[in-house]
Design a protein that fits this description.
Structural class: alpha+beta
Radius of gyration: 19 Å
Helix content: 25-40%
Order of helices and strands: HEEEEHHEEEEHHEEEHHHE
Number of strands: 12
Distance between the termini: 8 Å
Shape: globular
Number of helices: 8
Amino acid sequence: MLLDKLRNKQKQRREKGCIPAGCTLLSFDLYQEIGTRNNQEDCLLCLGDTEGNKGFLGIVADGMGGMEYGEVAARMVADCGAMAYEDMEQEEKGDRILRDIALSANEAVNTFAEEKNVDGVGSTMVGVYIKDGRMDYISVGDSRIYMIRDGELKLLTHEHTYDVKLKRLVSAGVISDEDYEAATGKSALTSYIGIEELKEIDSTDEPVELKEGDSIILMSDGVFNTLDEEQIMEYGAERPDIAAELIRSGVLAEERETQDNHTAIVIRVEEIHHTDEE
């Protein structure tokens, strides 16, 4: 049986950070640093079962530093992901899994904010679900997911910020370039986990067909606001354990006085075994 062969390989590679996701074998690594902040408001989650039946779930959440209880909101995103994975049926679609996590986390964060009687509690969320050579992803806020394929770096997600909204208005001729330049608060999020009504969700319409050798990187803004895309490409192209350390070291080497929390998950597609193969 194909899956039996894959599971035998998994036993040999488990100590190297590999895990099966259906008929796909993945390797991954991660890191997290507090930066110069007083609190760690980033949170991450990586889940997979040793049999590969449920696939692989990865999430990065960045609690909003400008809001009270940001670290709590990020933890709630991860907790909702863990609960969804625990209750997951084997045949559930990845896009539905990720959307349900985002919506349940949004409800949980809003409930918490009401109970604490605070004006806002928020977090970003990026997540991937990988199984059988396919990947679904989701983004709410301004954290990012990159893919490296055949030596090229591609940003998969779109940011939900006031800046992006203004640029669209410029392109549509609604406001002028001068209006855009004069605007303030461009980094403010227009969608996040904890917003009253979660409408802006960036996600896959159809699963991304993966190839062996693909690398996927989930990161908080503490990474991409410090490293440029050339560095992300260079570091991320290495195997996940090396890539995660290079990204961490690269951010630390900048020695920024106001370095945000920085977190990344690096995933590589090692093998894909299609079910119609002998």
